[in-house]
Design a protein that fits this description.
The protein is globular, with a radius of gyration of 24 Å. It is built from 12 helices and 4 strands. By secondary structure, the protein is mainly α. The protein has 2 domains: 209 residues, no CATH class; 46 residues, no CATH class. The N terminus is likely disordered. 57% of the residues lie in helices and 3% in strands. It has a two-stranded antiparallel sheet with strand order 1-2. A two-stranded antiparallel sheet has the order 3-4. The longest helix has 31 residues.
Length: 302
């Protein structure tokens, strides 16, 4: 009687090491933040801009401006770029008997990462986690524009808005506060940029490594009794997809370094880093030890 076949979803953890790099690869992120933070403290250039207002009026460095083109059209819509890059990898998975399963598991990893990003920075049964923590630590919306208060007072919405101040309960998110012309001040502002950039670059990096691990072996697999080899066009598409992912991840790392230099306190950056690393570890490393989780999200390349 032949031995029962072993499903790839129950692959022993020691055989997964060739697919997923060790968790120590995540040290690149605290190292990047440390490098940027030290530069911000030690560099005479960085020390020439003592206040954000001065930095905006006379920027010492282009990346010290919040309205620089990379911040506006890359970081601010970072999850759009992440989704495009992830999709480009997903549709170029090498052809094999395992392709469908791997694509479904990869999509599951994307969904988990998206849920974490959305809950942390966009919405979590109301204000996002970052906004909730800011308000919880004493933050509030200040210096609302006088004309906003007057216009709302004329409509009878606010009875005490003649001075141009809105009740705190009206503005519980940074976006709403800034849209109303106010300033989000006084609390602990976890760095959403650090959180998002670390999550994006780590997810794309591990997914790209998984695709690279699949391609050489799967091009030699037999599918329906025939050799399955990547066509020249398919290989070119995958190459372009990997280049696109590399550009997005590389620019994400660069903007992480710029954030470390020009924005946020050490603690705010550290907290953004901790949240993102916890998510990455849960999605990409815990499945190597927890079989039910591995059956659901898989491991890139395995």
């Amino acid at each position: 009687m032949p031995p029962p076949s072993t499903s790839s979803t129950t692959t022993p953890p020691n055989t997964l090491s060739r697919y997923t790099p060790p968790p120590t690869t995540l040290l690149i992120y605290p190292a990047t933040l440390l490098l940027g933070s030290l530069f911000s403290v030690l560099s005479p250039t960085a020390q020439q801009s003592p206040t954000p207002e001065l930095a905006q009026a006379r920027p010492i460095n282009y990346f010290a401006r919040k309205d620089n083109i990379f911040n506006l059209y890359f970081v601010k819509i970072g999850w759009v770029w992440m989704t495009l890059a992830f999709t480009s990898l997903l549709i170029t998975y090498p052809t094999s008997l395992e392709r469908g399963r791997r694509q479904i598991q990869a999509f599951s990893r994307y969904v988990l990462a998206t849920v974490v990003w959305y809950a942390t920075t966009q919405w979590f049964f109301g204000p996002a986690i970052i906004d909730r923590s800011f308000v919880f630590t004493g933050g509030k919306c200040e210096t609302i524009l006088r004309d906003l208060g007057q216009s709302q007072d004329e409509k009878g919405v606010l009875g005490a808005a003649a001075a141009g101040d809105e009740p705190l309960s009206v503005y519980l998110t940074a976006v709403a506060c800034k849209t109303a012309g106010g300033a989000w001040r006084g609390g602990h502002d976890v760095s959403g940029h650090v959180f998002m950039l670390v999550l994006v670059t780590a997810v794309l990096g591990y997914e790209a490594l998984g695709v690279l691990a699949q391609a050489p072996s799967e091009s030699r697999e037999e599918v329906n009794g025939k050799k399955s080899e990547d066509t020249e066009s398919g290989g070119q598409v995958r190459t372009w997809a990997l280049w696109f992912v590399g550009v997005v991840a590389g620019l994400g790392w660069w903007m992480l370094l710029m954030t470390a230099i020009w924005f946020h306190t050490w603690l705010e950056k550290a907290n953004g880093l901790i949240i993102s690393l916890a998510a990455v570890y849960t999605i990409y490393f815990l499945p190597r030890r927890i079989i039910p989780l591995r059956n659901f999200v898989g491991v890139p390349g395995a």
